[in-house]
């Protein structure tokens, strides 16, 4: 494999300066002539029938241009799982019923945001309150009130996986244990609240600038919600301040802003407040996870039986995917020759849970990894040794689901053992001090076509110019994760150019090539990277032809692209600058510019993902047994993300993952009173801050993923999973208290220690 | 020829509602985070050496972020005639010398436009005043001060044409006359003053939103002015409020805003005031035109000898083209078997003249048409008969210059004679009432590659979608003339769709296909229209293939596109909707969208234009012999613009042309005191208003231009020429006074009448 010039280096973000100096334009920065400001009226009740809505006082308020309710909008439900329309269960504005506190009921557009806010207060809604269900248990009771018509229970979706013969294998096991784990909700807590601006043209076509991870999905679903044709909607993604899964669906304000722009003939902006985000926003699924696992005496895993309830809140949102993936993550990391999974997605009268960084993995892997640690203790095997014994390796097959085409898990385990001085510390416990381990595997994008797209999954257009520059157009959405930097690197490397030679235009559904399914499931590096390479290779073929023609080269010559030049391999004088080669091709084409499009769709790659990342993390903690306070002293991580495209970016992703994992493990939680979220600001909702971050070391395992662009695969999403089980294990090592119910609060520790 | 569904109809402008309701975003409407406001310091002297500039007080003013002078910018001159770098004579900010009152000397960027304005006042410039020249005559004197180094006179450019043997032909003529005509400057008077906003990224690359007719030219020249690569500049054309030739060059404020954005790291906006536009803006060339013409007794033209001086002002600007075209327009309309032209472009210490609607034709044709009318009088031939005798016809050749591939001139003359009741009115003169004629021919875009582009002259990208819509991307610049509507019509017609099925994105150099040379010389309908058709035909080939494959059609079947369907000609059941055909091709292409690019470059079309329009206009006037006041009672026009693409648009262009021609004939003029323009507002600069407009009738002659898209050619620019000579002729018919010096003011009439 040839050495890289750009790939693997510490390359600053292409949008770094713009963000740091305030030049970057986020949706809320957009100001258009005559623009109106929108606000939403949200339900104060968790479950109620809407008897009547009187908008007359609001509409009469000076400055108010339009007030709408669900009755004004086309009666269309939307949802991301377009392949299964039954799962699409949400109206933009509630019709007949509200199902959670914060459910959108009406919208106002006014000349000023304060007027819109005042008008919202003037809308009079008469509700008939209904009994609600606020957790999985009560939602599943026989006499539980049902949230949605057409269902006999509150279970909206289930998913089963089974291979081998689990029952037989359990019977043949030497050691079987069964545990129940519970995990809480968590906020995406992106720094930029959701925001959008819509404008309609004289044909009623809509352009929407929206803070989204998935421009193409918003385009299609918004068209459907407004009875427009797909291409009567243009979605432009401005700079986005984080998504983490929380911005990958069509949302109420997007529909309202587009509809109100059509009706008023003026642009309409909606920007959510932090309070709205926290009281009504999407969140990570709380789950109840029952896991049964069987081993041979020597630690060989025989079977696993996993039953997960997902607490979905009032609507499906991305619940089907979480339900689908949780079962797959349960089968990853270790060789489970016999496996059974049942996932059930349960409606409750709370804000809908949905996609969030890790997408089912942090929950499932907290359970799986904690249970591994519990089993290791019982079996008397070091938890790393137990993992090594069962670890998946390259070539392993999940029957009917996936093949693991590259795997650096064993190397990760060995590396993290070494770097954390595991054997030494683990064998010499000190009171109040502990070390623990958690591991993860993650997907590099999804294979299953739940959105039912007719396009390739990713696409890229590359133009090259005689001034030696290139332009990359793609619908891949940079939401802060750095995909524009990564795509620029891949193209620069492929064409032998520098970063500054590449311009990138991303994520405008009208002008970037159809289509890209969006930024979720860590898909973009692999999917869009492959599309970029496909386009680059078509360009290179043309430019190589120019060199071959100009220098009359034998057709077997290889042509190299390096240092801004195109030349015969080993004969650098038989070549020209890339710009000259472009000019040559352009002449040959009688003035046609040199352009190519590339595509990627995973084919014959099972149901889940074309490639999987792996990694292991060790946490060191101090626990104050008086107060139950946990101090995380050190995180050590070794992970396999294939070829590292941008070392600095991977480091940043790791830091961010640890921050999010730390919050999940220790402090973040929605405090609920029935259906009401009590902590709706960042004082009460406790995220770890910069000062809370532990020191961290990391190593990237050197692997090469054949299906990935230049050998790359997922980095930065899977890493959000190992932190909680590693900390929980370290707390157990320090105190003897094993926490199976996140977050691990001081109260739980004190209560747990008291029991021992 | 098949009947059209969309072409030739009264189709409302695609951007009409946005403009009428204030939704359209012009450059000055753009607001970006942290944006600075720029102002220019202009020279108060017409000709002076810059001894010293002290910007320290300005820079110290709170709120000022940057002050620059010519010394700060790269020392690069620019100009549109890139093929001849010697003609590129203008710095963005003056270096060493200023050459007209208003010449740009320094620029300020501040947090607020008022602060910028105040800072401008604080810049101290020490000038050494030089003697100036303010008209052609004094500029050409032997001892005239020279404006530019490297020239021996103030003549910067000349252009010669000669064919046949004019001297011999004059000797053989029965009647020869020689006249001198003078014409004044005129303002473009676009409603939107020039405005731009620039933003620079961390690589120093610039995005500029600018009110321009020529995004590609601005891109290339701005790159050159800042020592950037061509594609390090992205030009986005927002909605533009008129250009008329006045917005087709790179201008000082564009360079300053881009440079200051790079230096400050913040966006910088410049918007000119009307006063700046009128005191220093581009304008139509004043000319002195000496024309000698010879006839046989029967009225047959034998020869013409034309010598034109163009008063160019301080810099060349688009003077080379005006100089080039004036000579071509002198050879149009009539068969001149022997022809000689000498054009000389003269520097004077006034604001540079440049391109303006008609581009040399209104001046040349005022002279040519007035001289025809004078000759007709002397020869005792009706002026329409004299024209009919000599009129150019389809197939006529201008040796080495052009072939006239379609020509409806004779029909225009006959039509206008009929509709104006010419013979009746002309033969029965009434005191103070007159009828007069003027004619024109114009180009449909230019063939000569003065910009030295390496791309095709026009390009278009068409995407079609399975929802039955299409998207057209083009760099063709709509500046109010309606080209986006026309291109949408052409594509809709070609694909058998409706207007609302087409989305158009125009004129962003980064995302619309390379390249288009811009909106000037009435080029876009023909040039870009052909590119659109080329792309549409490629798309149609693919979709026709889908129908042929699906219905297993014999390959000789013709496939029709109509009513949103694609079907075998004569067998409408063997077909499908266009959207279904797209979906079929997309499946066949395994998810690749259906996209094609089309191009047009005129080849083997001489030096001037691939096609010429023709027309005749009759004016009826009343002249008050007491006051010299002229009242235009009626305009009758017949013209040949090939296939009419949009009848309403052609009517609008005609109305606008009459308005501009009326101002040129009667009232518009820059009142100068040496180099100083005295009328710098719309109270003092007298344009005709809506209330001044005469009733108008018009007929479009039915011709078909083989080189044009669906038979179309120029409409709306040539028509600005006949109005002045027609009115002058009518004034002569009413009063006996023949005016050869525009504008025809009451003072000139009274003076003229006194002489008789």
Please provide a written account of the structure.
The structure is a homodimer of 756-residue chains. With 756 residues, chain A is an alpha+beta fold. Chain A folds into 3 domains: 16-22 and 457-600, 2-Layer Sandwich (Aldehyde Oxidoreductase, domain 4), CATH 3.30.365; 31-130 and 191-242 and 247-280, Aldehyde oxidase/xanthine dehydrogenase, a/b hammerhead (Aldehyde Oxidoreductase, domain 3, Alpha-Beta Complex); 287-448 and 606-755, Aldehyde Oxidoreductase, domain 4 (2-Layer Sandwich), CATH 3.30.365.10. Chain A has 19 helices and 30 strands. A 7-stranded mixed β-sheet of chain A has the order 3-5-1-12-9-10-11, with helices on both faces. A 5-stranded mixed β-sheet of chain A has the order 7-15-14-13-8, sandwiched between helices. In chain A, strand 28 and strand 29 form a beta hairpin. In chain A, helix 10 (361-379) packs parallel to helix 18, helix 15 packs across helix 16 and helix 17 (647-666) crosses helix 18 (723-735). The longest helix of chain A has 27 residues, at 524-550.
Radius of gyration of chain A: 27 Å
Strand order of the largest sheet of chain A: 3-5-1-12-9-10-11
Write down the CATH topology of the largest domain in chain A. Aldehyde Oxidoreductase, domain 4
Number of helices of chain A: 19
Q: Give the N-to-C terminal Cα separation of chain A.
A: 56 Å
Biggest interface found = A-B, 62 and 62 residues
**Main β-sheet of chain A: number of strands, strand sense, barrel status?**
7 strands, mixed
**Which class of the largest domain in chain A in CATH terms?**
Alpha Beta
The helix/strand class of chain A is alpha+beta
Quaternary state reads homodimer
Strand content of chain A: 25-35%
> Which CATH architecture of the largest domain in chain A is right?
2-Layer Sandwich
């Amino acid at each position: 494999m040839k050495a890289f010039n750009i790939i693997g280096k510490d390359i600053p973000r292409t949008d770094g300066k713009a963000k740091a100096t305030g030049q970057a334009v986020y949706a809320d920065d957009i100001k258009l002539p005559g623009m109106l400001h929108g606000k939403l009226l949200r339900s104060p009740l968790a479950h109620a029938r809407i008897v009547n809505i009187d908008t007359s006082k609001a509409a009469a308020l000076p400055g108010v241009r339009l007030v709408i309710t669900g009755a004004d909008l086309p009666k269309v439900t939307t949802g991301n799982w377009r392949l299964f329309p039954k799962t699409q269960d949400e109206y933009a504005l509630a019709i007949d019923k509200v199902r959670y506190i914060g459910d959108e009921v009406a919208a106002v557009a006014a000349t000023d945001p304060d007027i819109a806010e005042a008008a919202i207060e003037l809308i009079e809604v008469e509700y008939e309150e209904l009994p609600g269900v606020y957790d999985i248990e009560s939602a599943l009771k026989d006499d539980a009130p049902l949230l949605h018509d057409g269902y006999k229970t509150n279970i909206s979706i289930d998913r089963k996986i089974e291979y081998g013969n689990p029952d037989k294998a359990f019977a043949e096991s030497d050691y079987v244990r069964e545990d129940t784990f519970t995990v809480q909700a968590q906020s995406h807590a992106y720094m930029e609240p959701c925001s959008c601006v819509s404008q309609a043209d004289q044909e009623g076509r809509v352009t929407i600038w929206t803070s989204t991870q998935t421009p193409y999905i918003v385009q299609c679903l918004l068209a459907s919600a407004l009875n427009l044709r797909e291409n009567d909607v243009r979605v432009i993604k401005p700079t986005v301040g984080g998504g983490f899964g929380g911005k990958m669906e069509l949302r109420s304000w997007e529909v309202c802003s587009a509809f109100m722009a059509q009706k008023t003939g003026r642009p309409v902006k909606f920007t959510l407040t932090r309070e709205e985000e926290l009281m009504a926003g999407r969140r990570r699924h709380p789950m109840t996870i029952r896991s049964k696992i069987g081993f041979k005496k020597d630690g060989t895993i025989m079977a696993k039986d996993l039953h997960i309830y997902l607490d979905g809140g009032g609507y499906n949102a991305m619940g089907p995917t979480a339900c689908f993936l949780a079962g797959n993550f349960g089968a990853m990391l270790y060789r489970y020759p016999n496996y059974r999974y049942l996932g059930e997605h349960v409606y409750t009268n709370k804000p809908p849970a949905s996609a969030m960084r890790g997408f089912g993995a942090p929950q499932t892997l907290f359970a799986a990894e904690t249970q591994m640690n519990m089993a290791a203790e019982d079996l008397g095997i070091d938890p790393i040794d137990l993992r090594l014994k069962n670890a998946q390796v390259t070539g392993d097959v999940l029957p009917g689901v996936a093949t693991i085409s590259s795997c650096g898990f064993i190397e990760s385990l060995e590396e993290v053992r070494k770097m954390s001085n595991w054997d030494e510390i683990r064998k010499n416990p000190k009171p109040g001090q502990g070390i623990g381990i958690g591991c993860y595997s993650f997907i590099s994008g999804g294979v299953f076509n739940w959105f039912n797209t007719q396009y390739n999954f990713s696409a890229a257009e590359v133009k090259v110019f005689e001034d030696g520059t290139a332009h990359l157009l793609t619908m891949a959405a940079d939401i802060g994760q750095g995909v524009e930097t990564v795509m620029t690197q891949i193209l620069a490397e492929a064409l032998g150019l520098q970063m500054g030679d590449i311009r990138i235009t991303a994520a405008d559904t009208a002008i970037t090539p159809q289509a890209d399914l969006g930024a979720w499931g860590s898909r973009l590096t692999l999917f869009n990277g492959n599309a970029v390479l496909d386009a680059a290779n078509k360009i290179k073929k043309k430019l190589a032809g120019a060199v071959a023609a100009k220098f009359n080269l034998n057709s077997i010559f290889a042509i190299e692209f390096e240092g801004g030049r195109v030349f015969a391999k080993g004969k650098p004088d038989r070549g020209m600058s890339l710009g000259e080669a472009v000019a040559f091709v352009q002449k040959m084409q009688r003035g046609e510019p040199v352009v190519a499009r590339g595509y990627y769709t995973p084919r014959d790659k099972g149901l889940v993902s074309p490639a999987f990342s792996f990694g292991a993390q060790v946490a060191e903690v101090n626990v104050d047994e008086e107060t139950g306070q946990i101090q995380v002293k050190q995180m050590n991580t070794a992970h396999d993300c294939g070829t590292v495209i941008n070392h600095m970016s991977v480091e940043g992703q790791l830091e961010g993952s640890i921050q999010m994992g730390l919050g999940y493990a220790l402090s973040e939680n929605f405090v609920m009173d029935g259906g009401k979220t009590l902590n709706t600001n960042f004082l009460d909702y406790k995220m770890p801050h910069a000062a809370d971050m532990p020191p961290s070391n990391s190593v990237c395992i050197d692997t090469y993923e054949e299906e990935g662009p230049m050998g790359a695969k997922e980095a930065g999403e899977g890493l959000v999973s190992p932190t909680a089980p590693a900390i929980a294990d370290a707390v157990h090592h320090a105190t003897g208290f094993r926490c199976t119910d996140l977050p691990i609060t001081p109260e739980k520790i004190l209560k747990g220690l008291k029991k021992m």
